[in-house]
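Q: What would this chain look like folded?
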Amino acid sequence: MNERGYVRVSPRPGTIMVWDRNRKGAGAAGHMAIVTGAAYNGQTRKWTIDVRHVNWNGNCGEHPLRFTGASGMADWGNLDGVNFYFRR
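A: My prediction, written as structure tokens:
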């Protein structure tokens, strides 16, 4: 990503969220989405991240999705296995 002009940042609207393969619900190829909202709850130490993306769980159309610390499929209390990038 650095070679293409992107820098790694904290989650925020407009960033690209990139899942490592086989992490937090992503398949063997990984996954990407555009972040539309992000908030960290310091009390619970969990993120809430809103995205728009395609091809998640077999859904081919573009759709919004919210990942929270309460998401059953993954622990969103930490961001291990996902990164966020912004183009310089």
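The mean pLDDT is 83.
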